[in-house]
Amino acid sequence: MKEFNIAFLGFGNVGSGAYKIINENGNKIFKREGISIKVKKILVRDVTKKRSIDIDASLLTNNIKDILDDPEISLIAEFIGGENPAKEYILSALKNKKTIVTANKEVMARHWEELEKTARQNEVGLYYEASVAGGIPIIKVVRESLQGNNINEIMGIINGTTNYILTKMSEEGRSFESVLLEAQKLGYAEPDPTSDIEGYDAMFKLSILSTLAFHTRVRVNNIYREGITNITTEDITFGKELGFSIRLLAIAKKLGNKIEVRVHPTFIPTDHPLASVRNAYNAVFIKGDAVGNLMLYGRGAGDLPTGSAIVSDIVNACSNQSKHIYSTLYNGDWKPDEILFNDNWETEYFIRMTVKDQPGVLAKIAGIFGKFGVSIASVIQKGRNGNSTPLIFVTHKARELSIANAINEIKKEDVVIRVENVIRVEQ
Amino acid sequence: MKEFNIAFLGFGNVGSGAYKIINENGNKIFKREGISIKVKKILVRDVTKKRSIDIDASLLTNNIKDILDDPEISLIAEFIGGENPAKEYILSALKNKKTIVTANKEVMARHWEELEKTARQNEVGLYYEASVAGGIPIIKVVRESLQGNNINEIMGIINGTTNYILTKMSEEGRSFESVLLEAQKLGYAEPDPTSDIEGYDAMFKLSILSTLAFHTRVRVNNIYREGITNITTEDITFGKELGFSIRLLAIAKKLGNKIEVRVHPTFIPTDHPLASVRNAYNAVFIKGDAVGNLMLYGRGAGDLPTGSAIVSDIVNACSNQSKHIYSTLYNGDWKPDEILFNDNWETEYFIRMTVKDQPGVLAKIAGIFGKFGVSIASVIQKGRNGNSTPLIFVTHKARELSIANAINEIKKEDVVIRVENVIRVEQ
Known about the structure:
The structure is a homodimer. Chain A is 35% helix and 28% strand. By secondary structure, chain A is an alpha/beta fold. Chain A folds into three domains: 2-135 and 304-326, NAD(P)-binding Rossmann-like Domain (Rossmann fold, 3-Layer(aba) Sandwich); 138-299, Dihydrodipicolinate Reductase, domain 2; 346-425, Alpha-Beta Plaits (2-Layer Sandwich), CATH 3.30.70. In chain A, strands 7, 8, 9, 10, 11, 12, 13, 14, 15, 16, 17 and 18 form a twelve-stranded mixed beta sheet that branches. The N and C termini of chain A lie far apart (51 Å).
């Protein structure tokens, strides 16, 4: 039985989840795998702080050097989160020939090349299953189960906080602000919720997923990002009437050498598999040329689900020691200059406006859409609110730029009081 | 770049799917993985038969010895299907130190111990991703992503034919016979559909899945099996009214050292993730103590989806050559005599009967349920068909045996014309 000493960086939610799993299920796991794993050191900010789980004080240190310089430690699992100092710690660990298991989406998304290169040079592993979609093993599935496929499309619900908020808004008819406040009280949303509700968290994860799936580097700044703060109950109500559910989707599509990558609120048909993903659940929907449609669904956050991914990486890293498996970035299909990132993508659009309640308005606005080559699939115009009335269009497939130009011209019309929202639709 | 010569046994649907993928995407895959794979020989019954895909005639042989005795061939992928002669070929191949990739659920379900033992003794690999749920990488996920979990429950839609039939019956109000006939014409059901509609196919797959998930040997004869031939449109209609969708589920549950494994038609709530699985799609829903609920959804059959699983196994087998990963059967958690297979399980039941339309019937039947400790959750009694009327009960959780005993006594009552169906309900 091979023995491995490992260290944790950080001991918050995810770290203590992984520790619990190793404590409770470790003996069985290790027996099956023929290995033995011992957590030898844990880096924490405050070694005297009272912990929610019982832990031998001698394991704790606040000095990273105790870990980096310990030749017995062959693997480090990082759960500090955020870019700094996590990136420096990871890089130093790789240089000291220690395999890395990380849950850090931001560091992976921003510094993939440098980390992978350093790992290869030092012949150690770099594992990051927990960085995307918590307990859902999407990284391993893309890397080691879909090798035979050209993956052409990914649509993911990869941020649980926003999915929780949108589910509550949809099912209980409540406002964004009210649900956010509740989510913060329940601990589902951070005191500063920006990273979730503005789509940064999903953007980091999409960068990792699409880089892996398309075998080429998709950087954070290649991704269009729009959060959910402008979604109202009116949008949701009219969307339902049209057969749509709202989700914050992370979308990556490849067509020839063109890639589009975007995170934004999206209407999907209510019978789409992703529409059944409620509350804080995550799901990733993939289209491959061989496998067809594939979806993985599960818990995208939480101590034990994310801990499950961490422990899986640790066990695989120790078992694979003789042959670490890397992402395929450095022997990818394309050279960077062969790729075109396309932000004038083609999709369908839900456009909600408030117009004056007078004859000829519909014809005038439809005329402007027509002028920009935007064809209309359905319209809702009803109710009389006195002087104004809501008017909703759903378009056939149109270009992002055509829609933007049409909206600009529509806004100039006297009969148009406000263009309330534009929400993309994916079928 | 390491070079591998491989052989195929069989060249039907799955074999030609795998061949197509290797032909079309092989160069990219192999470049990324740093390996080179060549199909050197293909065993077919008739070497002169016209094939749907273009293939060099010199690759074809009808003599298994040309493959087993070729020292250059290090891996054999088997798609013959059925127990014999596939099992003998696989065993001989392993003894000749050739790694096996198989799609053969029956051989794995029936002969796992012998195959795994022979593979270990000969230090070659045994891969069987394609044996369960086609393109869905459920074997690898259970084996290499959920190691940290005690898996306590699996519920799977793992037979596409029956799911197609039940979907059509539910959505179009058509009879089992009519939809089966259509499915046979479309090639979704075999000319002899027994293996699918009577649940044998799902039973083999459940044996593999539960053996793997519970780290103990679950044999075919441990599994309760019931097909879908008795499901009627009446069952489906009343089920809908109660908020249920019907599926043929493969269920495995572990409680302490008790295991229950069963394949039968099942009502599930319409908002259960498995209820969104329509037509020929498959899905596997797993509960782990760390990961929580996890579901994988995709195509469970077809040349390219199953080919995707085959190619993934081939690539992994060649890449892992230095360290093959086996199932954990031989270092499992339990000794066989520590396990109790429980067939007196506890679940909820939908019971549909036709009774005489006269006062006191409901009280009488409810009384019998009460006598056997079966508590009723809901009842539907309505319509007057002259002398007879349908009467439907849904029970709270009850034991299989209590239900059987209650039904036996109910059948003896004069007021009961027929007990039409008993369908288990899972929440």
